[in-house]
Write a structure and sequence with these properties.
With about 180 residues, the chain is α/β, with parallel strands linked by helices. The protein has one domain: Rossmann fold (3-Layer(aba) Sandwich). Helix content is about 25%, strand content about 25%. The chain is built from five helices and nine strands; from the N terminus they run ββαβααβαβαββββ. The strands form three sheets. A five-stranded parallel beta sheet has the order 4-3-5-6-9, with helices on both faces. It has a two-stranded antiparallel sheet with strand order 1-2. A two-stranded antiparallel ribbon has the order 7-8. A hairpin with a 5-residue loop joins β1 and β2. The termini are close together.
Length: about 180
């Protein structure tokens, strides 16, 4: 029998784990957040895999308003800036978690990482994360990305209330159905 569980933590508040947990818990998390316009930030590999991004796209249905799968390692700032203005961010993979946190930073502060002229700020959208690596980025409100061209590293801390992602899965078998 496959095990599933939920762990309550300070940041993220809830970690769902085990086989089938994304399928079983994602809709309830999105409903809790009132998410109607979800922007997906996966790795290229996750986006190309029908059992991963394909299954997630089917589950999200009309709520999925866009996807940006060109995030590379260390989340280049120019790639992050191309993301849309959704009401919820959903990252799927290692580097996309930091990229989604950087998008939340830009939206919450009105500051763009590469062009610091202030724009009108808005509330940072909630961020749900489906990690595929053991980077622990999903447990932090800090993010690292790089400036394209010179690969200068930039560190960010997502301002309140968007402290960091709400982690949905810590399991490689998160999509499989429980037996």
């Amino acid at each position: 029998m496959a095990q599933q569980g939920t762990f309550v933590y300070s940041n993220p508040l809830v970690i769902h784990w085990g086989a089938g947990c994304v399928t079983a818990r994602l809709d309830q998390e999105l409903e809790r957040l009132g998410a109607r316009r979800i922007f997906l930030v996966p790795t290229r590999g996750v986006a190309a895999h029908p059992a991963l991004a394909g299954a997630l796209s089917v589950q999200l249905g009309d709520r999925l308003v866009g996807m940006y799968a060109a995030i590379g390692q260390h989340a280049p700032a120019g790639s992050v800036a191309e993301a849309a203005r959704p009401d919820t961010l959903l990252s799927f993979g290692g580097s996309p978690i930091d990229a989604a946190k950087a998008v939340a930073f830009v939206l919450a502060t009105g500051l763009h990482i590469t062009a610091p002229a202030r724009r009108p700020a808005r509330r940072a959208p909630p961020h749900l994360a489906i990690p595929t690596t053991l980077s622990v980025s999903e447990l932090s409100s800090s993010a690292g990305c790089s400036i394209e061209g010179n690969r200068e590293a930039v560190g960010l801390r997502t301002p309140p209330p968007a402290r960091g992602p709400r982690c949905l899965s810590q399991s490689a078998s998160a999509w499989s159905r429980p037996r």
